Amino acid sequence: MSTNLDGRGTVSLATYLFTRLRQLGVRAVHMSYPSYNPIYAFNGHARVKGISALFTQYGVGELNALNAVAGAYVEYSPMVHIVGCPARKTYRVGGVVQHSLGDGKLRVHANIWKHYTVAQAALFNPMTAIELIDQTLQACVQESRPVYLEMPSDMVTVAVQEEPLATPLHLSPLTNDQEIEDEVLETVLNHIYASKQPYVLVDGLAASDQIVDEVNRFASTTGFPTLSYTFGGGIVDGSLPNYHGIDAGKFGTLDFTPYTSTADLCLLFSPFLTNVNMQSYTNIPPKCITISFGRKVIGVGYAGTLSLYVKSVLRKLLDKIDTSRLPNVQKALSPPDYSAPIYQDTFNLRLSSHFRPKDVIICANATPLPGGRGFVLPLDVTLIINSSIWLSIGHMLPAAQGVALAQRELNTGGRTILFEGDGSFQVSAQELSTVIKHKLDAYIFLINNSRYTYERMLHGEDQEYKDVARWNYLMTLEMMGAPRKGEGDYTVDTYDVSTWGDLMPTLEDSKFWDGKGPKMVNVRMDLMDMAKRFKPVLKMQGDLLRADPGLE
Amino acid sequence: MSTNLDGRGTVSLATYLFTRLRQLGVRAVHMSYPSYNPIYAFNGHARVKGISALFTQYGVGELNALNAVAGAYVEYSPMVHIVGCPARKTYRVGGVVQHSLGDGKLRVHANIWKHYTVAQAALFNPMTAIELIDQTLQACVQESRPVYLEMPSDMVTVAVQEEPLATPLHLSPLTNDQEIEDEVLETVLNHIYASKQPYVLVDGLAASDQIVDEVNRFASTTGFPTLSYTFGGGIVDGSLPNYHGIDAGKFGTLDFTPYTSTADLCLLFSPFLTNVNMQSYTNIPPKCITISFGRKVIGVGYAGTLSLYVKSVLRKLLDKIDTSRLPNVQKALSPPDYSAPIYQDTFNLRLSSHFRPKDVIICANATPLPGGRGFVLPLDVTLIINSSIWLSIGHMLPAAQGVALAQRELNTGGRTILFEGDGSFQVSAQELSTVIKHKLDAYIFLINNSRYTYERMLHGEDQEYKDVARWNYLMTLEMMGAPRKGEGDYTVDTYDVSTWGDLMPTLEDSKFWDGKGPKMVNVRMDLMDMAKRFKPVLKMQGDLLRADPGLE
Hints:
Two copies of one chain form a homodimer. By secondary structure, chain A is of the alpha/beta class.
């Protein structure tokens, strides 16, 4: 801090920005130098910490980030993407500089981000820069989506007013017209009181809609049978007696359709109705029994019709609800059947018993993702089954690195546990190097079925190009410079298992679960193994594809 | 092929497209499944084969390709980028499908490509699809830049006319107004005949301008001292007695400024005058002595003023030139000084003697790139110092994979020789897995200085974040499943060297140069080593940066 001519304090624009980020809870900025994987790390970090910041280089760096940031945009993850740009005079003269298109048009890259972020700030003018920063960061938090900041190199040290930093950004939830809100609540409550077989269905946008607490209180207060969609896994407290797990229609580990197909009310929170999340639209409740609560829109059906901020509505709903008028339905669901003999199913169930509060569980796309539905989660375990629509392979190992960093910062004793596919591991394996370099702690269970099993189920089991190259996966850590056993206090452990006989002694060893260092388990599974009840949905999709390629 | 109702032959749209690609010389289509690295491979392939084709998946795949294709666009490399899209009806109904933005707007991704490709074809209409394909491929070849094709999944098998395939695409060079061309030629020839100290300066766009043959004939016919810019390395036949190598001003292995600074004519072919290529604009000839020949524009100065197709102009220039009227300047340059003791310089010079005709030499960005200026290339060796402006780290290992595949297809005995940095290797190491999977042959010299030396020179030697994680690089091949020595006829060789005593026996072993299998040499160099004469240019840039950050 310094003092300018009229006696007021100034700070550099960079300090202003980073102070604002710190006020929002950001403690680390991921840099995309040199690879694109750190952007996924930053995504993982954001999912745990609420908001993250990423710094990339003009052109080559930011374009590598596009896929990952687009995924965050699509799935409502808040991120601040700062791009280090050429100096302003380079823009003025249209310089032919590195990482540009060579035609003097230097804002082409920036213009693309209008389609993949919810707000953009071009910090070219010292008079407006801090206002732009404040507006953009506000949009990031309130919309829970990525934003984009262009920082020309000669703006970094420009002096700006320090005084606005004394006032935190205005981020409180937005309020509704009281009269409309009361009318809507009356209608909703009447539906609830009149119902005989209601259930609660929670989807993944509840986190970005910031109603996780309200949804859990609603489920707990009403005692209604509560399910999640795949994308919503981990939102509802797993220890609630009326929470029954993931609703994957007839394709889940548990089949809830005997109850849901005859229900007369579905309260649908934060829906994100993609083809993947909906199991090709097979597990969606009828419109006429559904009341949906979106971030800004509420009503009968899937999309809602009335513009209201959901957080305010839910808080008042919880205040007003008269529990004596609720139907009694707690025991309406059939008991779980855990006798499934298929390998990946058994694996997921057995692993679940080792999860602890504050753990973060991360499931890669493809087979680990549907497998993750079989987890039985204790209270306060976060499950990041990230993707219901973007589904970018290679995302989750770097994301786990970001989560591990967030866990260290939060220091709650929570562990980072990744279930990774062999195919996706090969996409972004070098991010293990970052884990080692920063001495982070993480579990990596590699679900090794030697191929893109998910894709084979979809496109045909005999497609050679869907084979994964045969790596010696457990060598990766040493290759990337990890210390050997006995060299210092940060050491890696590796395990190669193909039977329960191999794996059980490890799982039963309390030292294994101490959460220290990277622990990598190569779990060799059958070539075509995946969650038992998920096979039919993929086979069905594959058959439809072959009959009508237009469906993909 | 089948026959339709009016008796004419039809083929599927996919067959039509792939037949056209085959007619253009494409023999392999790279798929971006699952990673972004194959796009760089495809770039390498294109540089050797002239044109390549890439297939990616809608959304996640194509956005990962953006950085690499943007680099090809900027640096005039012809590529056909085909994106496998959802079916047309998904677009009509605005479906919320995987890899989309979830808002029903399915063409957002496609619209971005207008900025990074020279032509785009949305193959949604069977009536116009083949015409669009033909136009787009023609643009790709004639402009020597990437094009973009959207292929909805239900268009793949649509039947189209086969008959147009009988006529190859019209790709012959475009011709000029004869009168204007003759006038210009007279002026150019008068300047040449009147000059006393002329030289020829060749830049990298000569390849995409398709005038490599004409430029070489011009250099050979006139005998004028001939130099290349960094980006133009490998264009001029290294065995020409009047070709003297790369002009890096005062910062090259050889300093040509005693001659060039007093020259009275510079014939500049295919200029691409970026800040990097021009050594921060220090090695550019004065405008008043320069006649530049761009693809479509010719004239005095750097950019030219007259719209003429250069290939036609050069062919007529070679016909008309009267060699008896040329100044005799063959011996005007000072002899080379090869006594530089610095390691990377010595290394490059010694390695050069092992290059053979048809070899392709690939230099990664950062230290190998300026180091590559020191190579002395025999006839018919291609040097891919790719980047003069895009400079995306991690590009060259996958590019080498693409080159190795092209070498196998061409079957000339030429080898693929990569000089890779340790930092860039970590970005895209998994592409070695593709080399192994397809049993390709390649040399990988890893210039291992434990850090981003280039960046340290630029930003300060003490910047910890510029350190590269310490990998055991030579384990990579085994980790990725390469067979060990003695297991079958495809085996890898690895070498760990830090002195000439380690390296010389290997270089002198003819078996080492047999070109079989992957051979990886970990060359441990001094932390801050790089081409001797390149150090000052980076130091200068770094000093300027610290004094005025606006210059980056």
